[in-house]
Amino acid sequence: MIKNEYLMIVIGMGLVTFLPRWFPLFFLSKRKLPEPLVEWLDLIPAAILSALLIPELATAGNPRHIDLLRPELIAAIPTFIFALKTKSLGGTVVIGMFFFWAADKFF
What we know:
Layout: H1 4-28, H2 35-58, E1 59-60, E2 65-66, H3 71-86, H4 89-106
Antiparallel strand pairs: 1-2
Helix pairs in contact: 3-4
């Protein structure tokens, strides 16, 4: 049987996840945002992805230190170039897997 506390936690987590997405959509969907703000908002996904990936690709160990010859970084560079040129998600995944395999095998 589900206890009331667990149910309240699940409902609370749902609200915390839903409301920050819903409020801007509801209140800003009919408004015209200034162009500089729209351009700045367009950069947020790339900034978040970079903040997550760069430390993992370019550093290793505990404590972390820079290691530029990691297979992950060696595979990421041609994969990123392929993704920029083709905009193909499936092709990028296949190319990334191939380059990671090759970098792991030969480096």
